[in-house]
Amino acid sequence: MADIKFYLPLFIALPLSGAFLVSLLGKKFKVFSYAVTVGVCALMTFISLSVYFGEPMLGVVTYKMSGWPLPYGIVFVVDALGLLVLTMINTVAFIVALYSIPYVKRYTASWKYYTLYLLMVAGMNGVAATGDIFNLFVFLEIASIASYGLVAFGVEAEELEASFKYMVLGTLGSLLFLLAIGFIYALTGTLNLADISQKLPLIDAMPKNFIIILLIVGLGIKAALVPFHSWLPDAYSSAPAPISAMFSGVLIKTHGVYALVRILFNVFGLTQMTSGIFMFLGSASMLIGVLLALYQWDFKRLLAYHSISQIGYAILGIGLGTPLGVLGGLFHLVNHAIFKSLLFLNAGAVEYETGTRDLSKMGGLREQMPVTANTSLIASMSIAGIPPFNGFWSKLIIIMAAVQANQYLWATVAVISSILTLASFLKVQKYAFSGHSHGMFEKIKEVPFAMMAAMIIFAFLCLLTSLPVVRERLIIPAVNALLDGRYGEKVLAADKK
Amino acid sequence: MIYLLTLVLFCTGLYAVLVKKNLIKIIIGISIMEYAINLFFVLIGYKHGGVFPIISKSDIISKPYTLNPELTMVDPLPQALILTAIVIGLATTALLAAIAVRLYEKTGTFDITKMRKLHG
Amino acid sequence: MFFSNPYPLTPDLIQFMKQQGMTLIVRTITRLTVGFIMLFGLYIMFHGHLTPGGGFVGGVIFALAFVHLMFAYGKRVALKKFSPSSASIAESIGALLFVSVALFGIIAGYFFINFLPVGKPFEIVSAGTIPVSNIAIFLKVGAGLFSIFLALTLTTIITQKTENTDEKIKL
After folding, report:
1. Which residue, A34, A158, A273, A341, has most beta carbons within 10 Å?
2. Looking at residues A181-204, what average pLDDT do you find?
3. CATH 1.10.287.3510 fits B2-114, yes or no
């Protein structure tokens, strides 16, 4: 239906121009700032979804910036994986923008929030759409700098401290990534991902492995894999709730997982070493994340540790390298974007009404806030892997793939983590929503309509993505695109057309 | 050989980030790491005996090297990349400094060991 | 809009302004040089497609002229010339100009394509959209850098303001 080729630059240009329009006019007209944000996100969601409901995307589409041919100019490349990530980013961004409208009203300069929000969306779209490694770095930094600002948005000591910590570690990760780009350019003399993939087989294994390690450490900090995760709980629990939802839902996925997987699978090609590191880091994140989450009493901090754990599942699945494993990993990425965003929105709704994030002070909120309680129940069942919901299917596929690949140890770790996740979310449901009220929150009522609508849409998506047709239509082309060894040739051929 | 010096510079910055307790010293450490990587990029593009990669009006008339620019010009692409990286570094440093100033306003100290409200 | 006066000049304020800033020597030299510095920034910007330099460097030089003014004459004078709100407006306009140059390229075929006539090399009106982009970057960087400087000195402004009001009461 829609030709993605024409719309591709709009994914970057629309949010950028929206951001600067908001910063120009949003100060005077409050309505304008969120109208533009929601409108831009809705338009991009519509474009990306309409591409999906058109013809299934099999090949690669390239868009030459300013018409330069491929090894010289910057090029945008979209294949099925890129389209999946673009759709994920924009859908989550749209729903979270809807949620932000009532939530952000309590801050004084809400137009600054929307400016940074749109800049972050522009950066993430750029990461998903670009086909040039340095351009990827630039977009990564645009989104990162916007996110540093958003973490510190409340300007209290706690938020500033979290932002500073996140910024120091994030900058370190970016610098290591930049160093890796320097080595790649020194060895191959090109920056285009497709061109690099053509020239890399001529390089020795030793410098190649060094670059791979640099990339895994640099982007692993962005993805908050376990040895590099220490910024994440602070940043997530300090940021405003919609921003935590964006971070957990899409930011660490595009920054860490998508960029890492795109470069290591399609450009470098999966080796035994990469696969081993992926599986080890994934399992470590899975287990340590959930163990640290068990004793948390801060609602958002608990969810943040679960983010580390669930990203570990995706990394483990992708690291297996088999078609089934990659299917599970990518499917879990999509599912996690939905249910974890929903959980953060629930936490935000509870904080919006009660003013606390401490689970031990809540209780009996189900009567006053039925929508929040029921949607959070759906999300908790999804994340814990209860059968009719989407989280169950993706975890099942990952564990099956691990068993098929004879990785029994990692499969056991995945099962144990899943059980611990269930235990942790039983605690959330018990202390926050059921049980007796402490008498403190008798007067609270349900959150405003836009926030409810956002949570209900996410809850429906939780059910919708568990249908097998979604898996076939959305995920399988992306798996084929990721495991196809001829990424570079395809891009170069698409460029010649 | 000179590449090792950039490595030393990078490690100096990393040392400052990891060991120092003062916010401003951490920011300086990050800047040092950025400069080390910028220097590394410029060295990648360097050629022995190369000239700057700019074609001016008089060059086209008099100098012969513009006819075969690959031989004598240094590689301009890393320099262009570094300009971008410097701009990004400027933005990051400015934001870091702004947050450090606000933190000083809130807590009255630059020492990170004295402001541990968070423990992740 | 850019040079609007948010602080009306009262005798009290004039007295107060005389106290701020540096010594007479610095003030005189600044008054003589600051115009040339701005002119140099504009020169670098307009020749960005011919010589080294461009919008970013020109913008930095232009912003530094204001920083210079601020050091020599104190905050009030510099803020009167270039207030934070007009800096923010200039910044947004620069960014929007840059994005629209890129978006107009889509009409001509590709994003960011050079749709204006290229002209002869080494002439001041040449290179199509590059000078326009340079102007956009100049606005964005000049205003942005000055805003960063203001944001970093904002805290000291607040403390100084309270001190000065105390002094005024004493006087």
Report:
1. A341
2. 86
3. yes
Whether C155 sits inside 8 A of B105 (CB atoms) is yes
Residue spans of the domains in chain A: they are 270-466
Q: How many CB atoms lie within 10 A of CB A28?
A: 9
**For residue C41, what are the domain limits?**
11-170
Nearest-Cα residue of chain B relative to residue C151: B98
Task: Please state, rounded to an integer, the average pLDDT across all residues of chain A.
Answer: 85
User: Residues near A73 by Cβ (< 8 Å), separated by ≥ 6?
Assistant: A64, A65, A66, A67
Cβ–Cβ below 8 Å for B57 and C122: yes
Domain boundaries, given as residue ranges, for chain B: 2-114
Q: How far is C37 from chain B (nearest CA, A)?
A: 22
Residue C4 lies in a domain: no
Collapsed DSSP state (helix, strand, coil) of residue A62:
strand
Cα torsion A166, A168, A169, A171 to 10°: value is 110
DSSP string, A111-178: HHHHHHHHHHHHHHHHHHHB-BHHHHHHHHHHHHHHHHHHHGGG-SHHHHHHHHHHHHHHHHHHHHHH
- Helix H or strand E encompassing A63: strand A61-64
- Residue position matching structure tokens 């690949």: A405
Instruction: List, as one string, the DSSP characters of A178-199.
Output: HHHHHHHHHHHS--BHHHHHHH
Q: What CA–CA distance (Å, rounded) separates A111 from A171?
A: 26
Domain contains C154: yes
Burial of B105 (0-12, 13-18, 19+ CB in 10 A): middle
pLDDT at C18 over 70: no
Query: Quick one: closest CA in B to C158, which residue?
Result: B105
| Structure token digits, residue A67 | 């018409």
The shortest C-alpha distance from B79 to chain A (Å) reads 12
* Tens of pLDDT, residues A279-319: 999 999 999 999 988 888 888 888 999 999 999 999 999 98
